[in-house]
Design goal:
Layout lengths: L1 H29 L5 H5 L3 H15 L7 H12 L4 H10 L12 H18 L7 H19 L10 H18 L3 H13 L6 H14 L9 E10 L5 E7 L3 H11 L3
Antiparallel strand pairs: 1-2
Helix pairs in contact: 3-4, 3-5, 3-6, 4-6, 5-6, 5-7, 6-8, 7-8
């Protein structure tokens, strides 16, 4: 058996790599990358379509960095990108169309994932009317998935299980605590010795979303191993903190005065 594994495992790896490469090559034939100059000239709606095509046709190309370029422009567009994303999410209805038809499921994946990037890096969606419309569109799509009996415990297919679960997680994040809020929590603990409970963190998040919905863009984040927190495997936790915490702390003092 060791002899067989010795020679079959590399073959499997090579076949997997060839599979990814073939998917990437096929995607390149259908959809070709635009230059940054071309992307910069696009409207917010056109950039959303560009993002969707990138995710549909090049998602398995692990060496493709075009997604980061498009994402940079769309997170800068922020709320202006949402109307087109809502249209695409509204097209996804597994109660009416089989999975795979016109790649609607993959197009839906591209949009809910981009909602997460905007919510984490640019502006809290629930802090604006446009953002709440996008959240509602995601919730409607999840409702249609439930109507199609997605999300059942015994389901193993990606569409019925993985897609559904991740979309639900994104909806919960948009409505409540997201990665920015968790980074604020870790920052306050380390920088100011302030320990926020999850309940207080949610209250503070709601305060920020109401008064300063653009707060996700106040600072870039650090990512490092925190030696003061150990996971179940015995290793330090990887956490995010804010590089520039001052505005968050000032807003927290303002928040505390409302209590």
């Amino acid at each position: 058996m060791k002899f067989i594994r010795k020679f079959t495992e590399p073959v499997i790896l090579i076949m997997c790599f060839m599979s990814f490469a073939s998917c990437a090559s096929l995607g390149e034939l259908i959809y070709k990358h635009k230059s940054e100059a071309e992307i910069a000239q696009m409207t917010p709606a056109q950039r959303v379509d560009e993002w969707v095509n990138e995710q549909v046709y090049h998602r398995y190309d692990v060496l493709d960095e075009q997604k980061y370029l498009i994402r940079k422009y769309i997170t800068t567009d922020g709320l202006k990108a949402l109307p087109r994303m809502i249209e695409i999410m509204d097209e996804y209805d597994p109660t009416k169309f089989r999975e795979g038809k016109e790649r609607r499921g993959e197009r839906f994946d591209a949009c809910w994932s981009m909602l997460g990037y905007i919510d984490d890096d640019a502006v809290r969606l629930r802090g604006s009317k446009e953002g709440r419309r996008a959240i509602d569109a995601l919730e409607r799509a999840i409702g249609r998935m439930r109507a199609a009996n997605y999300g059942q415990p015994d389901q193993q297919e990606w569409e019925q299980h993985g897609r559904f679960e991740l979309a639900v997680m994104q909806l919960e994040s948009a409505k409540g605590i997201n990665s920015v809020d968790n980074a604020i929590k870790q920052t306050f603990r380390l920088e100011y010795k302030i320990v926020l409970s999850n309940a207080e963190l949610l209250e503070f998040s709601n305060f920020l979303a109401t008064h300063y919905p653009e707060y996700p863009g106040w600072s870039e984040k650090n990512n490092f191993q925190d030696m003061t927190q150990i996971n179940e495997a015995g290793f330090p936790l990887w956490i995010y903190t804010m590089k520039k915490p001052e505005r968050f702390y000032k807003a927290y003092i303002e928040f505390k005065k409302t209590k």
